[in-house]
């Protein structure tokens, strides 16, 4: 792209999602090379270094790695790159602790990690890259914009619409605000972190970036409306068939973010069946034990309003292709949808 920006589609999760699924790394070529994200553990050997060799560049030319956010599928490739180069790792200050945790686990020095903030301009590989803080998917998610070339790199900040998207770990309201902000940016080319729907390709051009951002904005608004309607409109348990028909694509972290924010505003129904210790009424559903084990307290916002059967509803939504119940097993535990690492934002996008 422009001879300067190159999207590297690093293969990821072939067995589960097919050979076309990728985690995106962007190489910015100058006298030195800046990588935006580092991919998964095998991305350096499998995709990044072969790309650099193909274009006649050395891996040792990599001077900087800028992370769009602190999730494993975007930074687990750092240790592999450190074997062949000595880059500075740059990340938004709010996601820096996650990268420092990686350094501790993988045994590299945290002194090579530097943080940046919103609106900061990074001068790397001969380019001026403006940081746009776009929280939602994670607290420290960012986009980068080359204001001369009008090329944006978004990582997972813009999730698209459909097929389980958006996937939000931090805040649905922050995500919505980020989409509104990005609609005002002059982005003509957008490089993505995954093949997000509806376009499902690595690079968007011309009218596609704005359309994609708009679809992402509408997706979170639509999900919020649906959750409110179900929570406020149901007085009896909601069956599996109804749940699957109403919300076939909801993802657990996104739902949790929505519920936390909606309950804080008192928009999710009555208090029936709840106590101060168990505001979700989870004990009546045999659910509180698992919640406490994997997710901390049953509800992080004491005294909030939520329908007593909504927790049960959400469990059925999150495992639509299994009959897994609390205490049982689910195929989703394999791909990270329900495992503890996923819920702690460490592994998957």
Mean pLDDT: 78
- The helix fraction, in percent, is 25-40%
Number of domains: 2
Widest β-sheet, arrangement of strands:
1-2-3-4-5-6
Tally of DSSP β-strands: 12
Task: Write the element-wise H/E pattern from the N-terminal end onward.
Answer: EHEEHEHHEHEEEEEHEEHHHHHHH
User: Beta fraction of the residues?
Assistant: 15-25%
Going by CATH, the homologous superfamily of the largest domain would be: Ribonuclease Z/Hydroxyacylglutathione hydrolase-like
Query: Using only CA atoms, what is the Rg?
Result: 21 Å
- Number of distinct helices: 13
Distance between the termini: 24 Å
Task: Predict the CATH topology of the largest domain.
Answer: Metallo-beta-lactamase, Chain A
Task: Summarize the main sheet.
Answer: 6 strands, mixed
The shape, in one word, is globular
Uncertain stretches of 5 or more adjacent residues: 237-244, 269-347
The CATH class of the largest domain is identified as Alpha Beta
